[in-house]
Amino acid sequence: MSLGKDQSLQDPPAIPAEFGSGPLQRRNAAITEPAWVRWLLIAIALGFLSLFLLLPLAAVFTEALRDGWGTYLTALAEPDAYSALKLTLLAAAIAVPLNLVFGVAAAWCITKFEFRGKQLLISLIDLPFSVSPVVAGLVYVQIFGAHGWAGPWFAEHDIKVIFAVPGIALATIFVTFPFIARELIPLMQEQGTDDEQAALTLGASGFKTFWRVTLPNIKWGLLYGVLLCNARAFGEFGAVSVVSGHIRGQTNTLPLHIEILYNEYAFAAAFAVASLLAGLALLTLLLKSILEWRYADQLAASRRH
Amino acid sequence: MDITIKNVRKTFADFPALAGVDLHIESGELIALLGPSGSGKTTLLRALAGLEPIDAGQILFGATDATNLSVQERKVGFVFQHYALFKHMTVADNIAFGLSVRDGKTRPTTAEQKRRAIELLELVQLKGLEKRYPSQLSGGQKQRVALARALAIEPRVLLLDEPFGALDAKVRKDLRRWLRELHEKTGVTTVFVTHDQEEALELADRVVVMSKGRIEQVGTTAEVYEKPATPFVFDFLGSVNLLAGDVQQGKLKLNGLSLPTDTKLSGPVDVYVRPHDLRLVEPTSDGLDAQINFVQRTGPLVKAVAKLAYDDSKVDIELGHLDPMALSLKPGTQVRLLPVSFGLFARMPHAAVQTLPDVVPNAVPEQRGDRARG
């Protein structure tokens, strides 16, 4: 091995041919940085990860359990917390399926057809990413609120939008709209329209083409988009905060409930509920990893051409 | 099923992809649409399939007007350059797809679908691969599965868009022969698009040469190669020398040389001569004096570049390697050349400017790539 190392040092042009098949030792000398540079880079990366990702996560659970399991469980069992959890799940259950349909439709339309104003539509889809959620919330209040444009009409028909579930759902839909579409557009752009055209020439209707060709082609991207969308729907604060009205036990979602508890100096309770939210997020990630592991073969096959 | 195309037009933005195309394709024919990129050949093929709506004109399948039929109603088999196999389905499911999407009563049972798929796999000589996924197949195998899938719906017409374009040279050659045999077995009217003149000439019954959205010439492979109707066809199909000549009283004058013709042209003309039609003759007979610049022997052919004495222009020559003249050829040799066969076209101002390569011709057997870009 030492011979190989010497060779590669003396004879640089030979290195590319050896690349990949040669012993590890030889490759290292030729293409990597000195040990101290490597360790420094690894240390910086790990330090950053710990400080900004792991530490907060650990802090949430530590703080939640600071006063012991008893306090922790009491905080979670509280009716207001339970109601907030229910509302959070409900908002996500409304927003995610709707965005699933909107996202797939938008991605389908943008990637499989040519039309005027396509770029504008793509930019529009990104709007929720660029606009502050608070602004979005305010817009909904302006439209549906008691003194808003459509508010009086809804009031006449006894439909509550703002400070009620519909408003929270609307705000969540707005904020999580881009996740699925953004995940699918590059994927579907890369896949092109050949498969669909092939299906059409074979006699498949538009619906069958979508169901049997397009959907299987995008299912992994779609799943990933749904998980991201879901995680964001659970955690949304700004827009929901504006439209919810913070009515305890009625219009508080988990993030709002946490804020209230925190403002009331109920730190342990705040962190306990926060740990619940973090737990939901971890569950989502776990689900994704399990699916990726379970269907690794299919995933690899669908990425290859 | 015979196909009639009447004055079909299609414009993309400002670019006329099809500028009035008329063509009749006989039932059972194997026909090639040949042309450089941007010639409209693929657009025409996609228009036949219904994948590209046309602006004007008519497409008839037999006696039925198919112009406004949907893609599904046309029942054409379409094979894509990049296969377009469904990645998440097995080979058998891919082939049976066209049967499985039929409605209610017309849909064969699952067992029947499977039987058909296996039958077609045998036809395309891929028996035993029915459980594989497309990612586990080679390029050539994928394209044969795509063909089997297209044949499964018993198409009225089979349309192939550069079917071998993505394959390497050896596989391409094998598949070409194989497709010819398959066509003889099935007898389905087949139209394929290619930019490869060799492929078109080797595979097709008739060749449609296209350029700039128009048909330049339609004919059997022998016709288009030996009697090109336009300078474009002359240039696109095989290599050619361009000389400047004059027609006077039905005779072609080339620097004192006078050759009999049956042309109706008169005055200045462009003379197109293929390299193998420029014969070496004895110094005592009539001909054009030239000096050999460069000689290359490639397999059965000897290719040479000669400089004509009268205007210093360079011409390509080709001889068989057994030709007695070929043995003595080397740079500097004085020769006398006689065009034994040529095409005459009224002088085009731009054509006269065109000159042959200055130093070395593209004498490698692969001349195709260069031509294709033309």
Describe the structure using short key phrases.
heterodimer; A: 305 residues; mainly alpha; 17 helices; 0% strand; disordered N terminus; B: 374 residues; alpha+beta; six-stranded mixed beta sheet; five-stranded antiparallel beta sheet
Account of the 3D structure:
- The complex is a heterodimer of chains A (305) and B (374).
- Chain A contains 17 helices and no strands.
- Chain A has 305 residues and is mostly helical.
- Helix content of chain A is 80%, strand content 0%.
- Chain A has helices spanning 2-10, 15-18, 24-31, 35-64, 68-77, 79-112, 118-125, 127-130, 133-144, 151-156, 165-191, 194-201, 206-235, 238-244, 254-263, 267-294, 296-303.
- Chain A is globular.
- The longest helix of chain A is centred in the N-terminal third of the chain and has 34 residues, at 79-112.
- The relative contact order of chain A is 0.11.
- Mean pLDDT of chain A is 84; it is low at 1-22.
- With 374 residues, chain B is of the alpha+beta class.
- Chain B has 11 helices and 20 strands.
- Chain B has a 6-stranded mixed sheet with strand order 6-7-8-3-9-10, with helices on both faces. In chain B, strands 13-12-11-14-20 form a 5-stranded antiparallel sheet, with no helix packed on it.
- In chain B, β7 (157-161), α6 and β8 (189-194) form a beta-alpha-beta unit.
- Mean pLDDT of chain B is 87; it is low at 351-374.
- Chains A and B meet through α12, α13 and α17 of A and α2, β6 and α5 of B.
